[in-house]
Design goal:
The chain has 368 residues and is α/β, with parallel strands linked by helices. The protein contains 15 helices and 6 strands. It folds into 2 domains: 171 residues, no CATH class; 187 residues, HAD superfamily/HAD-like (Rossmann fold, 3-Layer(aba) Sandwich). The structure holds zinc ion (ZN).
Length: 368
């Protein structure tokens, strides 16, 4: 872009334009904004906020290394920058410009990484990143195609780094510093155990489930329902029906004033008759797949969390993940308590009559 065209598009290079350009295009002007965002993220959720920030910084570092050194060495393509010396300094132009745009990589890498952990941030960060991209094209620092390539690459790097960081944090460090949570089994704990719930009419909440879940919400616990539904693999019901039943549960709980933050189910069974689901999976309890998935999605700290269920397979999740485990006597609870008392399985930390008493115990001051 030549100077005349630059001036024609942008008006005379006056103070207002300098200010806008300085705000949008120079990375250093992002630092105060990033600092405010950092404080907010860590204030909002200490553990997840910190991991999100580390991910964003790592993504920018990787993006820079890739954009500046690797790709530039491979695909360097020089382009003259705007020839107004003041603008040139302002927008940080060097002598030559390359594929891809490092500004585009960096701004979208931040959006991808932070947006992975805090979805609503995408609505602010992606437009802001695109504005940066646009400004790089407007000042003639990059070809539009280089900016698009940089944006896509940056977003992919940010998202991948965040996913990797979340996985490492939850799988290897148990989500230390994250939110506390209560994992509830579904059938026999939240609702009446009734032969795999093959029909939506069989679904019936326990009378104190919604209120008990509301008490957990109010105490700041994330509430996650984790349920083995091998009936899908066995051909008793379809996955669609299972989803409908789960939706009914969410609706009835919310009508009762409670909130379930997430539902995880395992439709698999190694001896199932429906081929798609007849697999040895990592999510069928007592395997911890569902807990790890929910932990990654919500940023949960297992050392501060509880698991509640009516089966030995629920109780075994406690020692496996560092959570305290509570057996409820509802559903198969009495039957499995018999096995536990005979020494056939690990004992829970507490035995409750039902979900209400389990929540009483969780909220008891001795265990905070
Ligand atoms: Zn599974």
């Amino acid at each position: 872009m030549d100077a005349a065209l630059f001036r024609a598009i942008n008006g005379v290079s006056g103070p207002w334009w300098d200010s806008v350009m300085a705000l949008v295009t120079t990375p250093s002007s992002w630092y105060p904004a990033m600092a405010i965002l950092a404080v907010w993220l860590v204030y909002k959720e200490r553990g997840r906020g910190a991991v999100a920030l580390i991910s964003a910084m790592a993504a920018v570092g990787i993006g820079d290394a890739l954009g500046y050194h690797v790709l530039k060495a491979l695909f360097a393509r020089a382009r003259p920058c705007v020839d107004l010396p003041d603008v040139r300094i302002l927008v940080g132009c060097g002598d030559a410009f390359s594929f891809p745009s490092n500004h585009a990589i960096n701004s979208l890498a931040v959006a991808g990484a932070l947006g992975y952990f805090f979805r609503p941030l995408l609505w602010g960060l992606v437009p802001l990143g695109l504005l940066v991209c646009l400004s790089r094209v407007a000042v003639g620092a990059h070809y539009p195609s280089d900016v698009v390539a940089g944006a896509v690459l940056g977003f992919a790097i940010g998202g991948s780094v965040a996913w990797g960081a979340a996985r490492l944090w939850i799988h290897k460090f148990g989500g230390r510093g994250g939110r506390k949570a209560v994992f509830l089994d579904r059938d026999g704990c939240v609702n009446v155990e009734n032969d795999h719930i093959r029909d939506i009419a069989q679904f019936q909440l326990y009378s104190d489930s919604a209120k008990s879940i509301k008490r957990l919400n109010d105490a700041g616990y994330a509430v996650v329902v984790i349920t083995n539904q091998s009936g899908v693999a066995r051909g008793y019901m379809t996955e669609e029906l299972l989803r409908e039943v789960n939706a009914l549960m969410l609706k009835q709980i919310s009508e009762g004033g409670g909130r379930i933050d997430r539902v995880e189910y395992c439709p698999h069974h190694p001896e199932g008759v429906v081929k798609k689901y007849a697999v040895e999976c990592d999510c069928r309890k007592p395997r911890p797949g569902m807990i790890l998935r929910a932990g990654m999605a919500l940023g949960l700290d297992f050392s501060k969390s509880f698991v509640v269920g009516d089966k030995i397979s629920d109780i075994e999740l406690g020692p496996a993940t560092g959570m305290k485990a509570i057996l409820v006597r509802t559903g198969f609870g009495e039957r499995d308590l018999g096995k536990i008392n005979k020494g056939e399985a690990t004992a829970p930390d507490f035995v409750a009559s039902g979900i209400k008493e389990a929540v009483d115990w969780i909220l008891g001051s001795a265990h905070k």
